[in-house]
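Tokens for Aldo/keto reductase. Go.
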Amino acid sequence: MVNQLQSTTTLNNGVKMPWLGLGVFQVEEGPELVNAVKTAIEHGYRSIDTAAVYANEEGVGQGIKEGLKAAGINREDLFVTSKVWNADLGYDETLAAFETSLQKLDLEYLDLYLIHWPVEGKYQSAWKAMETLYHQRKIRAIGVSNFQIHHLENLMENAEVKPVINQVEFHPRLTQVELRRYCQEQEIQVEAWSPLMQGQLLDNEVLKEIGKKYNKSTAQVIIRWDLQNGVVTIPKSTKKQRIIENASVFDFELTDEEMKRIGELNQDLRVGPDPDNFDF
């Protein structure tokens, strides 16, 4: 039962991961980023998600350092994720990219490392590198991002270690039902990026109506819907009040009918690239 901010899901390798975390996509290096990470940790967040391509790992590392001190907790109490970018997919390249991320974050290990996109012909060798890092205990868990079913099947044909996570675009306009069902069967935890559809859903009438019933914002309704769908969620914000508000979703529960109504908003609509047809 997801009933508090520190509630965790147990990944298929036994590692525990918080259901709710802070994402920092499109947050530039600087005091705003450092303060956002520090604020989140101070207010009970225990999961921080970044990526090499976000070009903000140094600020995230600084925010983590300040946040741990302010909250009076240890590094082991925090779950930190980063991702290897497309240009660094390949065995040696991925090993080097990981060390660069670790150095920028100023950490001794990562809790989770992900392949950011399934670049054909490259992600298999990157996965071998990640398995090496995992066996060396430099990463507690390894996974993927933006993988479709056929990418996962292809990866697992020769993988020694099964991915623990598939982080994908997921929100009420893109419910990814088949992919989520497959991941559940394979014991791969689904994680949502862009859960609020980059703000495009905040004025949706169905969500506003449900929010009014519980005296909650549209964002809180969506985050609660994610969690009740068994999806790990990392909403982004740099504003203190919003960071706190996004985590205030454990004092209400959506009914089955409300869950269904929100799911029916699906239009298979993406705000990000299609993993089967992207060019970067």
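The chain has a mean pLDDT of 96.
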